[in-house]
Amino acid sequence: MKFPTLYYIRHGQTEWNASGRVQGWRDIPLNDKGRAQAAQAGGILSELLARDGREASTLPHVASPLGRTRETMELVRASAGLPREGYALEARLREIGYGDWEGMTFAEMRTAHPAHYALRDADKWSVAAPNGESYAMLAARVREWLSALAGDTVVVAHGGTMRALMVTLGVASAAHALDQYIEQGVVYVFRDGKLAKYA
């Protein structure tokens, strides 16, 4: 099945990113570096679209509803010369839910719930954090969103969401996707069954 092209941007850095704390569904704002990364990604996006002979204003823009993704999207759009508003929110693009582990570092998770951490560490795709989501659950909602997508789209979401997309779109195995660091301040393009990164 052929899917539309996705111009995918991970939100800019937050203080929790910088300190190694998982955010999940927590609403942590961008820091100064994150705002600069968002603006940088907007410039890269403009160059990519121009190269592809596209106008940013003709593509739908959709973001996860969390604050860090909304702020990133607005900075991306401003960099592309678009009004900050004028994009859609999509709950199915939220980050993976880390439940009781949100706000913790991985070391703190291991200390707080050693048995559960070991289970999840052995099977990150299928095992959820306590009161959280598994990557398989995240992929199910991402797949549902993809199946309703009408055309090429600019997306601002999260690292976990992108890993689920990589597996759903067949560009990576679950093991490979879960091992990838998803960069900030760059644009990833899912097109014709392939994934490319532009920095």
Summarize this structure briefly.
With 199 residues, this protein is α/β, with parallel strands linked by helices. The chain has a domain at 6-97 and 150-160 and 178-193: Rossmann fold, CATH 3.40.50.1240. The protein has 8 helices and 6 strands, in the order E-H-H-E-H-E-H-H-H-E-H-H-E-E.
Characterise this structure.
With 199 residues, the chain is of the alpha/beta class. The chain has a domain at 6-97 and 150-160 and 178-193: 3-Layer(aba) Sandwich (Rossmann fold), CATH 3.40.50.1240. It is built from 8 helices and 6 strands, in the order E-H-H-E-H-E-H-H-H-E-H-H-E-E. The protein has helices at residues 15-18, 32-51, 67-79, 106-112, 114-122, 135-147, 159-168, 174-178, and strands at residues 6-10, 61-63, 88-89, 153-157, 187-191, 194-198. Strands 3-2-4-1-5-6 form a 6-stranded mixed β-sheet. Strand 2 (61-63), helix 3 and strand 3 (88-89) form a beta-alpha-beta unit. Helix 2 (32-51) crosses helix 3 (67-79), helix 4 packs across helix 5 and helix 6 packs across helix 7. The longest helix has 20 residues, at 32-51. It is globular, with a radius of gyration of 16 Å.
